[in-house]
């Protein structure tokens, strides 16, 4: 049986009512009948038949419509999540900071930025890892014989990830890998359907990240293919508002995507005045570490960096010297933190205590504003001061359905002497966390 929609029911009701009322009004009632009807409240047999039929049709429509709504069951409706994977250790790990989007001379529009300069600068500002992401279309996909084959692609202290910027007509994405992979295969399918691209990406075993998802070079592929999204591109924080909106949309729809940063720097400081270009000024405004992406890795290895990036134990700061945002949750309120950003747990229906703290170079006497975002909407704002600014708040995640919390921190910028013009471009944005998740289906 097919059930009537509300609009169809209304149309039938209007049609049948009008039809029968017209028939009733066209009946020529005699004076005798009028008299009998007035005095005895008797009903003409034909009128009785008409009214009964009208009521039957209307009742049937109402019954069918109600049955249709009552019997419908949405197979995708939220249900209580079963057993969740255990939360990883909260203590067996180390915070590592790095750069995930920077271009060397192997990107043709880059200037004064050889690989050796990028690595030396990264080491000088305390970076633990860096991924040099040159445009693959500039070398027809042959990254392995250009960026990775460069004799300067080596370091005794900075972990070097293998990657490139996947540059296509449908947008840009970065690849992150702990070891060399066949990037040519990914480049060759760049114009194919997402199902083809996704299969190749999965076969390569790489981490794919959506770059600057809004704007001219937005990411135009399915977000189901990626593990992370660039929510903070370059030192210019205000231009990332739409990226944050897209991130919240993905999170709210059940996609557990890591938010990460990247300077997208192309230009280095010239070695001499005669080598300066029209873009050389950018090196003092946007360079390695604007912003900086922190990962809580299980070890100081390239694979641990990629794994942490995939798992979401990640924070972003405006520069390498700015404080790091740490976000924790105490599930049973016993005073011990049980999970951190990136972790996913089953809600018990009870209140959870959350803690946000800033670690590192906080400014003396500075006041930081900590904005808590719940399911894409602001839950509250808190003020924090002191050597290690910290706030705590309580909230109850739903037992059926998803809930996530993330944090944005505003306040005065910490100086970045090597890139002195970057602080003004970042404005009041000091850093942000990745979400803490509840009831996110691990098999989504």
| Straight-line N-to-C gap | 33 Å
* Order of H and E elements: HHHEHEEEHHEEHEEHEEEEEEEEEHEE
How many domain units? 2
Count, helices: 9
Structural class designation:
alpha+beta
Notable features of this structure?
444 residues; alpha+beta; TIM Barrel; 2 domains; 15-stranded mixed sheet; 9 helices; 19 strands; 25% strand; globular
Describe the fold and architecture.
The protein has 444 residues and is an alpha+beta fold. Helix content is 25%, strand content 25%. The protein has 2 domains: 6-71; 94-438, TIM Barrel. The strands form 2 sheets. It has a 15-stranded mixed beta sheet that branches. It starts with 5 loop residues before the first helix and ends in a 6-residue tail after the last strand. The model is unreliable at 1-43 and 61-67 (pLDDT under 50).
SSE diagram, text form:
Layout: H1 6-25, H2 31-40, H3 45-71, E1 94-102, H4 115-124, E2 129-132, E3 159-168, E4 171-177, H5 183-188, H6 194-204, E5 207-210, E6 228-233, H7 241-252, E7 258-262, E8 292-297, H8 302-311, E9 314-317, E10 324-330, E11 339-340, E12 344-345, E13 352-359, E14 368-374, E15 377-384, E16 390-395, E17 403-410, H9 422-426, E18 429-433, E19 436-438
Parallel strand pairs: 1-2, 2-3, 5-6, 6-7, 12-19
Antiparallel strand pairs: 1-8, 3-4, 4-5, 8-9, 9-18, 10-11, 10-13, 13-16, 14-15, 14-17, 17-18, 17-19
